[in-house]
Every structure is written in C-alpha cells, then in structure tokens.
Design a protein that fits this description.
The radius of gyration is 13 Å and the shape is globular. The chain is 32% helix and 33% strand. By secondary structure, it is an alpha+beta fold. It has a single domain (7-108), classed as RelE-like (YaeB-like fold).
Length: 111
C-alpha cells in the first residue's frame, strides 16, 4: 500500500473532546464510511482540488462529501505533514455557512 502524504488528526479542545469525531459518531455507519473514504483520498492524494477539495480561506479547506440525499463537509487545515479535521457538518444551503467557517478558523487558531 502507498504511504499517506498526510497523517490525519482530529482537532482536540482544551477539555479533551474531539468535535469532529463526536459528530461522526452521530452519523449512520454508511455515512461514516463514505466520509472516511473521502478523507482517506485526501490523506493519500494531497494536494487535491475540485471536486473533492475546495480552499475556503487562508489555510482552511473543505472535503466535499456526497451522502445519500444530502451533502456533508469536513473543514480542515494542513500543518507539519498533518491534516487536522476542524469541523464537520451536514450542509443545508448552497454556500458554506459563515458560522461554520468561523468555528473552523477559531479552532485552527486555538480559540
């Protein structure tokens, strides 16, 4: 098997929780599998662009995931050979909601 380009890490709060991991646990097994496969594609193929990955802001990208009947996004940053999963959500509108992007930025900055 090929060696991954990046190591995957979950953002961890000061309290020790991992919000993206917690969000994934709330989803169905098939949704988790689809999301995991898309993150693995990024992990092994970085750098990638559309249609799977889109740059959202300085140092923040989104994995664009198509689930059965809905769309999910996982916002991440890349640092020191690691992809850090900052925020995951089910998309309900065309544009990525500003509060979701702000949350990812705050987590990236350690706020």
């Amino acid at each position: 098997m090929n060696k991954p380009t990046l190591e995957v890490r979950f953002f961890k709060t000061d309290g020790g929780t991992e919000p993206v991991r917690d969000w994934l646990r709330e989803l169905s097994a098939i949704d988790r599998k689809t999301i995991g496969e898309d993150i693995k594609t990024v992990q092994f193929g970085w750098p990638l662009g559309m249609p799977l990955v889109r740059k959202m802001d300085k140092d923040i990208w989104e994995v664009r995931i198509h689930l059965e009947g809905r769309i999910a996004r996982v916002l991440f940053t890349v640092s020191d050979g690691k992809i850090v999963l900052l925020h995951g959500f089910i998309k309900k509108s065309k544009a990525t909601p500003k509060p979701d992007l702000k949350l990812a930025k705050d987590r990236m900055r350690g706020e």
